[in-house]
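Entry 14. Ran structure prediction on the chain below.
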Amino acid sequence: MTRFSVYIEGDDDPKRNTARKLVRFEIVERVYRRQIKRSGVILDPRADVAFSPADRKASRRGVLGLDCSWATLETVFPRVSAEARALPYLIAANPVNYGRPWRLSTAEALSASAYILGDIQEAEELVSKFKWGPNFITLNREPLEAYMTANDSAGVVAAQMEFLPEEVLKELESRE
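Output, C-alpha cells:
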C-alpha cells in the first residue's frame, strides 16, 4: 500500500480544499516544506515525465500531492525533485473544474496515481469523501485503465494520445 501525503500551501479556499479534507479524515498525511525532499514521487503538473507504473519503486517512499493554487504554483513552489511526475490526460470531476482536462483537485490527483499504480481500492478511497468523487473514476476509467497497463512514462504518453480531444491534438501538431 502506497503512503500518500500532501503539502498544503493554504492559498486555496479552505471550504473547497480536498487535501485538507483528506488529512482531516486521516486518509493522507500532511507534510511540511522541510519534509518534502524525503517524499518518493511528487505530483507536479510541470514535470517533464509522466507518472506511470514504472514509478512503483519510487512511490514506496510515498506519493506527494502539492496543494496550492494553480495560479501561484510557479512562485509558491519551485521544482524540487528529479522524482517529480505529471499526471497524464484526465478530466476533472470536482465542482470547481468539472469537465476541464488536467485541472484535477489534489484528491483526484492522488486517486489517479493510486489507480495508475494498480491500487484501485485505494484510488476509490481517496475520492470517497466527496459527493463527486466516484464520478471522477467513472469519468476517467478508460484512460486510467490504459495508463495502468502501460510499462513506463513513454507508454503512458502514447496511451494518452488515444484520449486527447481533436483540438488538443491539432495544437500539439502545430507546435512541432
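The mean pLDDT is 87. Will compare against last week's run tomorrow.
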